[in-house]
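Cross-check.
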Amino acid sequence: MIDFAPLEKRLTELLERHDQSRQPWTYDDLIERMERRRLEKLSRAIGDGPADLAAIQAAWASGAGPLHPDHAKALETAYLGETNLPWYTENLYAHLSRGHPVLGDFFRRWVAEEDQHGRAFEIYLLMDRAVPPAAMLEAKTAMLREGRAAPATDPFDIMVYTSIQELSTRVFYARLARVVADPILADLLRRVQADESLHLAFYREAVKVALQQDPSLAEAVHRGFMGFREPVTVLPDYEERKGLIWDNGLSNLHVFRAEVVEPLLRYWGLDDGRALARWSVTEAGHRPA
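Predicted model, tokenized:
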């Protein structure tokens, strides 16, 4: 395991940079905008004349947003990934904090902010009725009951994993924000994307300074790329969700290689042909096993 003590000053600077750069936000604006939109839709539905209670209830229950069902399913998948925090916390915190107290300090911030993302997505999905609430709860329950083995146990390996995960998530949110028809959701995705960028900045830079201290850690980076799996792979219908996301161009092998693998390797000054080959499009167009 790498000795992070010589890196304490730089890690502390990264932690302070995160705290200074992040713009705090709440759910207030999201809730207010969605309530206003729903009330406006309700007003249009009942018009100026009298309306019976059933008509009012039907208009209210119908939701208000213009979200495409495929985009709603993609957002629900993102929500499930963000809300899988019990296993992140349980499996990663003890290992990461062994590396250095500053790493544990940042991890606690990360968990709090990821929890905020998941709750914001849940608010949107429930208020918009973009997906059936009961089915969403069932998916969440199935995911949490399934559990998830730790993707890594060494502090450096964990930061390689989180670097890949944070950049992959940021790319996904950016692509989703560009195609959704709802400006409320697009704004929320950009707000969350800004947080993910700050998370990435910490983990990516921490990996870089560790590699400068010990270049032999490049092999651990290689293992991280070769074995990377998304947190939502534990979902029973993961393959179906992945197919929908790929069909909508929100992620696929080409996107992952071009916007995640290659940029990280360049940033870390590494050339990993095997990892690049693994995340290339195969003749069948499928993700390699």
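Confidence is low (pLDDT under 50) at residues 283-289. DSSP finds 13 helices and no strands in the chain. Passed to J.P. for a second look.
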